[in-house]
Amino acid sequence: MGTTASQLSKESLSEYQELTFLTKQEILLAHKRFTELLEKHEKDQIDARVPMGKIITLPELKSNPFKERICRVFSTSEQKDGSLTFEDFLDLLSAFSDSATLEIKSHYAFRIFDFDDDGTLDCADLEKLVNCLTGETNDAKLSSTEMKQLISNILEESDIDKDGTVNLSEFQHVISRSPDFVSSFKIVL
Amino acid sequence: MVLLNEIIVVDPVSAGRNRGAIISQYCNKTLKLRRRRQTRPSIRDFSPSSRPSIRSYGMEGDTIDAEVSKRERLVNNLQNLPVSDRVRMLRGMPLSVAEKKEIRYVPRSHRVVFYLCLQPHKLTACLVLLFLTLAVWLSFLHSLQPWQTLLKRVSGRFGTGVLSYFLFLKTLVFFNVFLFLVTGAFLVLPQAVHPPDEATETRSFSGLELLTGAGSFSHTVMYYGYYTNYTLPRSSRGEGRGQNASALSSDSQQFSYNMPLAYFFTIGMAFFITCIILVYSMSKTFGRSFRINKSNSILTMKTFSSWDFKVIKKKSVQIMSENICTQLKELLAELTQKNTKSTFCKRFCRQMVHGVAWTICIASTTGCMAGVYYFSELVTMCTVSARLLSLPTVVSLINLLLPALFNVVAWMEIYESPSVFAYVAIGRNLMLKTSMLGVLCFHWLGRVCWESFVGEELYRFLLMDFIFTLLDTLFGELLWRLFSEKVLKKKRKPVFDIARNVLDLIYGQTLAWLGVLFSPLLPAVQILKLFLVFYIKMSSVMMNCQAPRKPYRASQMTTIFITLLCIPSLLGASVCVTYTMWSITPSTSCGPFRGLSTMFKAGKHWMKILEKDNPKLSVLSKAHTYFVENPFFLFVGAGIFLIVIYFHSQVVDGQRKIISLLQDQIQNEGEDKKFLINQLQSVHKQKQDAGKRLKSQVSHLYNHQHF
């Protein structure tokens, strides 16, 4: 059976069901996978934190180029080191779940793509984003002229108030017109 | 001078990360929701500002300790919303779970479990309950989550596109399970428990029955001919054979089950409910994928939404990155290329090539149709078991080879975009399959006990379709991979053709729907077939195929496939079944409708008997005569439907105009902001300069005075 801290109480389970988009089975599976990542002595603690290095060993995140950004966005730690508690982990899965709304997904996608955490996507953020998308190998990268052209096209298409950056509302406006975003922004355990 | 900070209630820059901004945004949202649930606020309550963007916001300043009061107001608003709205609001807030727990605090007395009690209109509660049970049934089926791990493996390796094929297969399984349960419970079970009196020719079971469906299977619950045309159970053995449904023996005290009526209503209701479910899911997927404006921000959408987070295998992630890079480079190259207007000659040549291609396709389809028709005439006279399989084999062969011919023909054409190419390919494939089915439907009428024969034929067609799917998987994927690896020494594995496979599934489902009237156990056969196809395709894809190289727009294609399932497939099957029930004379020697002029008369007979017993129900029959059978009502209904569609399209037009107006407005306000900031800076600078000059003048004067 195990101690009470390593098993979810019924109350917390129903509370998590109300606050997130996850179903009961998904929450229980998340709990199981999360406790596997904890050390033995931490399994009894309620608010145990798993460091980022361990989270990114999960098979669902291992090959994802955005894995560090994802950990940092959902982390509530004071030191901003990307470590996650169980509730942060649930937040992550809820935002990436099947039933999450477009608004939630686009909000978190914006924060993931905002590499310098300043609340807007400027040229540096967009460049890092494109480099993550095209991969690490040299022959798959875009040349610098292509990159400049791409970024200027993106800003021209999506920057409505012409301030040189893409803010959250503009990002959500672009995303709302793309029907494939919701189906591709999903992670399932 | 007005400070800019006070006017902007939600600064979009800070909303990206600021908790206070999110809380105040959701405070406004919950307030609006509360107002909407209670009464509409009058126009007078809005401040008459000339800037429409801030007209509906209160003009209170957002001071520093406003966050605390906003939080309290948010908690208060949330507690006053009905439970379902509160849960929806809480889930939709982009805050962490810990923060939501603090906002959510609700005293125990407010917890209401069943939200129906809060519904104001109890009159609609019954309808709501009915839909709830339907929804619960469907969600129960979905929550069983069959094949969850397998689907995850497929999506982890191949992405959303290939996953959509398997999800479509799962949907078809659910439809068939529903059909099977309905026909099994209402038709097969009662008839199996009370077998008919006629002496059946018992033939011994030989293995050939599984292939041909004839032989010892022909006089069983599997086919229409077995079903009786009287009420079950028969009360006395002395009744003659030719008794029809109107002479019901109502003096038996036992449970009586009117077979013809049950048959008629079961099939009718099953089709009706399937139609409703399909139209509902079609409208949901359409709503998800339809966008008001044809967007020209392709590059942006490609950058922001092309990364498929479901893909987790390293090799597939690499392939996906390469694909995205290639697509971005291609799109950039297209944009930089000057739009050379193709000369008239070039365009004419292109149209000619298109014309030739279409002529080839239509000619080959027509040729195959004629061939199948004459072949079916030849085969009609045949009763030898194995030869019965020849027509299904020929049709399945045509369905397999002709799309390959269409692909070859399409290589020589040039299309403006890959999606047009995909639509044209689907259109040609669809045309072929519908014409095949049309010829077969035409050929099947006019035999003795033709209904059972049609049922058997459809069983054979379904089976042949399955065998050919097997062969296609074997040759198309496995052998091609071995061939390209060993002989051609290429590393590229074949790509899984999603559209063609989905169309094959739709074709099989059309056959099942056509056949359910004539063979009530056909859905069971279809379920078995779908299960086997799932596992075979799954293993073949994992072993032999690689991730697709071309971009695949999953949500658009899913909408198209569900639409194709609804409109040609289900609609066509329903039209055929309705036509059969309405106007064709059922055969006189077998089946539950023998002796009646049409199958529809069974329902009418029952109505007349009900009227005789309960005169009050004559209202119902009069309503039936005036509404259902009166074409005027149908015209009026269709007219109202068209008016509603026109109204909605006008609303969408208006929304398009509003979107472009708002975009201009945002741009103007951005420029206003820049202008005001520049003004502020210049005025500040002027003041500074004036101050400096004054200071220097004063010190100059002071020095002058002293010296």
TrEMBL record, chain A:
UniProtKB keywords: Calcium, Magnesium, Metal-binding, Repeat
Tagged with keyword Metal-binding: yes
Pfam family, one: EF-hand_7
Example of a GO MF term: calcium ion binding
Keyword Metal-binding part of the UniProt annotation: yes
Protein name: Calcium and integrin binding 1 (calmyrin)
Gene this protein is translated from: CIB1
Record domain EF-hand: where: 101-136, 146-181
From TrEMBL, chain B:
Key words of the record: Membrane, Transmembrane, Transmembrane helix
GO MF: mechanosensitive monoatomic ion channel activity
Tagged with keyword Magnesium: no
GO cellular component terms attached to this protein's record: plasma membrane
Pfam families noted in UniProt: TMC (PF07810)
Cell compartment(s), UniProt: Membrane
TM segment ranges: 123-142, 162-189, 261-281, 356-376, 388-408, 420-446, 458-480, 557-582, 632-649
Keyword Transmembrane helix: yes
Record membrane topology: Multi-pass membrane protein
Domain TMC: 449-555
Main subcellular localisation: membrane
Family note: Belongs to the TMC family.
Protein name per the record: Transmembrane channel-like protein
Originating organism: Oreochromis niloticus
Lineage, broadest ranks: Eukaryota, Metazoa, Chordata, Craniata, Vertebrata
Gene this chain is encoded by: TMC6
